[in-house]
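---------- Forwarded message ----------

FYI, see the FecR family protein record below. Original note from H. follows.
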Amino acid sequence: MTLKEFNDLSKKYLAGNTSEEEDRFLSEWQEQQQNDEELPLNKIEEFAMEKRIWKNINKGLNQEKLFTLKRLFIASGIAATLLLAFIYFSPDLNSTKATQLSENKRQGIELTNTSSKKEKVKLEDGTIVELSENSSLIYGKDFNKSKREVYLKGEAFFNVERDVTRPFIVHTGDLTTEVLGTSFKVRHNKKTHKVEVEVASGKVSVYNEKKSTKNKKNGVIITPNQKVVFDEVSENIEQSIVSNPKPLVKEEIVASTLVFTSIPLNKVLSQLSVIYGIDFVINNSKLQECKITADLKDLTMFTQLELICKSIDSSYEQRGSVIFINGEGC
């Protein structure tokens, strides 16, 4: 049977349209596969390829149709065989590549946190990864030699050791996060099909892996207290502000600069921008000179904004990573 014929039969089987004879053939084939030797795969390659294959298979499934255990077992075998077929027949993987995958069978490293608390891991380059529960980090044994590249399943906080010659790259589904040296959190929610990236320090480049180009025009650059949400269904990347922005300057500086006595609004917001690294825009010029008297120490940024706006009968709204102040004036 040719690869095309097997693919066609597999699609029929997954759609529930095969005859008894075809079902019997696939059942016998599945038993035979258990005795065959599998092609060794690098964990990273296996994870990436298997993800794409299952994604394509799932598109063709009727969600209302219930699979028996036997059918599901055979379906798993089909996915595995399609994975092997991809390796053998893909024009992008020549014999040299296949040999490399075979040699790297034991070079793929997967770290999984099965505990009920976060676990810290130090990578060879000095990067610290705080892996959340039920999350996994996959990387090659050549990590830190020619490149720094990892695959994340779940959630993790990264404190990346700076290296301007080798960016640190995190693959999460179809989203790629690339940095030189910074700290950030990546969260992948499979139920909502969304990936979130929050930056604590430094700059982070985030882009859609499927649409990436050499200059990554489809991506965004985010800075501390900013985040992006990538929707895997619509493939949209939305830039915004983290739920609780943290001061980016020393605590003693924050305490000494958050007490205002009859200070114009534009100067108050300028001070908050320095502290949090967030842009504020006053929509109405009549608000610029409205005087603010307030003690904003030990309050979250959004609580500070609420108090400021309440004191001058105005309001604020967030658009992306910018906060706009609206009002008639004072």
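H. also flagged this: Helices lie at 3-14, 20-33, 43-59, 69-89, 95-103, 251-257, 265-276, 301-311.
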